[in-house]
Each structure stands twice: as structure tokens, then as C-alpha cells.
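Note to self: user wants both folds in one dump. Writing first protein now.
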Amino acid sequence: MVRDNAHGHQTDHVNADAPWVDQGAGEPDRLQRLWAPYRKAYLTEKSADPFVAAPQKSDEESLIVARGNQVYALLNLFPYNAGHLLVVPYRKVANVEDLDIEESQEFMSFIQMAIRVLKKVSNPHAINVGMNLGGASGGSVRDHLHAHIVPRWQGDANFLTIIDGTKVLPELLADTRTILAQGWKEISAEFADEKGANCH
């Protein structure tokens, strides 16, 4: 190890009394680092389409709440609020206008069902529904259409979110998936019973 001695000359030996100078890469900045190794899989799989890969795994592993013929609903892996759902077509399309009739109908039907389930299970004060369309829209997966359904409560953007850019989530994603999947089944069964009653 090379250090400057008292005369300003570099030496090849270590003086135990000399102050340690960090020679690491980079410059100090204002940021503190929070280590989140679970994000590694998300970052390393960025080249692959996570919405194509998700339905090929189990519902529990991919956090899928419900599957349809054309689309499916799953939890956002990095939610804004607990219960943040995504509705995604199986077929990889970038634009709403690229969906065919059947996909469009089930896409909207799943968005409506997601809202019903969140209202029943989570009792939110409001719900945001939105899509990021196009490369400049800010979405992280820009070439596979998906809709965000986010439950909202008064004060859910508190000082931690606004000042520190941090979100506190009160429940594990796996637990949220189980609750929402059960709610989805119950509401689907209610709709099926209503249709059956109307047919008689």
C-alpha cells in the first residue's frame, strides 16, 4: 500500500500511525445507501419482459391475483400503496389501440373487477387508475401494455413519502395477494350467481 510520508515522498510500506485515507471510487454525496439485494432479480431481468414471464410461474410466485382468457391481474412488485394492482394482457402489445375486441373487453372487465375487489377488501377512500403509454410516459415496462389500479387513502402521501421519498407498506406482498385473490373469487362467484338468477 502506498502512502505519503512526513516529507511528502511516497512509500511502499504502511505506517500504522498514519491517518487512513479512503481511496475508493466516486465522490462523497448527500445520499445515504439502503441495501436492497432483493431488487437484483428485477434489475438483471430488465432485458426480459416480466409480464410475459409472470404467467409462466405459479400465482403465488408471480403474485398473480386472477387469470382470464386474454389478460391477468397481479400485484405490482414495487407498489405505491398496499394492494397496487396491474392488469396485463398476455399478448405483448404496447398500445391500447393494438388490443383486439376480446382483449379490450376483458382488459376493461378486469380493471372494473380490480376496483370492486379493492373497494370490498381494502375500503379505500379513492382509487387511481392509469396507464403509461409511450417511451416518454415514465413507465418502467414501456413495450407491454398494463393498467395500474392503486387504492388511495386520505394522508397516504405523508411526510415520509413527500420529504424522504419513502413508502411504508404494512403487509407482505404474499399476504396481500392471498387476500385479494380470495376477494376476487368471492365477487366473481356473486356475479355468476346473479347471472344465473337472471337467466331463470
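First done. Writing the second protein, which came from a different request thread.
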Amino acid sequence: MSIDEILIFHKAGILFEILRPLKAECISVLVVSAYERDYIFVNKNDFDKVKKFFGL
């Protein structure tokens, strides 16, 4: 799954807003940040629930 949006670097808190619904459901994530992209990993047992949150 990827969120392919062009986001402005000076806007802070974008990743937090994306992860907020997962936090509310106690879904663990691993975030890896790279220069131009952030990767969000979730447990495969939670993947279907995560897809519903993001409308996929």
C-alpha cells in the first residue's frame, strides 16, 4: 500500500495524522523514513483492517 501524494517538507505532523486511526485501534507499526518517502509496515494479521481505514 502506498500513499502517493506530493507533500511539502515544511508541513509537520503528516505522518502522525496518517497513523492516528491505527493508534486508536492499537495497531503496531514500524515506520522507516527515507529522503523522499516514508514506509509504514504493519503486521500481516492487521493488514485487512488497515486497508479499511484508508479506503483500499
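Dump finished. Worth passing along: Strands lie at 29-33, 38-42.
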